[in-house]
Amino acid sequence: PPQGELIPPQVFLSIAEETGLIIPIGVTCLRQVCETVGQWKRKFASARDLSVNFNLSHRQFIDPLFWDLLSTALGENDFPPGDFQVEITENVLLDQDRSLWLQIEKLLRIGVKLALDDFGTGYSSLSYLHDLPLNSLKIDRSFTLDLKDNPRHQTIVQSILRLALDLDLYAVVEGIEDRRQLDAVREAGARFGQGYFYAPALTAGEFQEGLRTGLRFPQ
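Given the sequence above, the corresponding structure tokens read:
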């Protein structure tokens, strides 16, 4: 049992997924996110175009009640559906039964966006890019770590970026933790990135203070 130490997400999330606790955890997070960001959008001019990415596991994605809860939470908080993006990994797509596509149809009806996370790992089937109504791809951090010194990774990242551009998808490179990695990502042609170099995880209070005073990120 925990003794006050930090437990990394890759540990507790897998347990929550196995036990089914991921469902109530996700519902609580969803309601809090929609309420908090909805308030920010109404209060701060700098937050009016703020968007949210929300990660879903396989169990959450195929839960028939989730999409009704999402639609309700967005409506109750005047949260534009187009500013809400669901992130899934390729593992969610392995079991391509009818329930999966029913949930995708619900997603489209609500008007939220869909992102494919950790692209380039796992099975990375190009058919996903054809079949899914994607808005963006997130290139896995494993390619970022040594991008400056690994020609193979440079070629792969550049190819994914070109593919995303041709398909009119946003491409976000994950795992940018220092200036050197940011420079390598830019040299590869990326326009969007994510990682600790921009900011560590922030509490809602810290982020709200940033909205009030003006958020500043490395250029």
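The CA atoms of residues 177 and 197 lie 4 Å apart. Try to locate this feature in the token string yourself.
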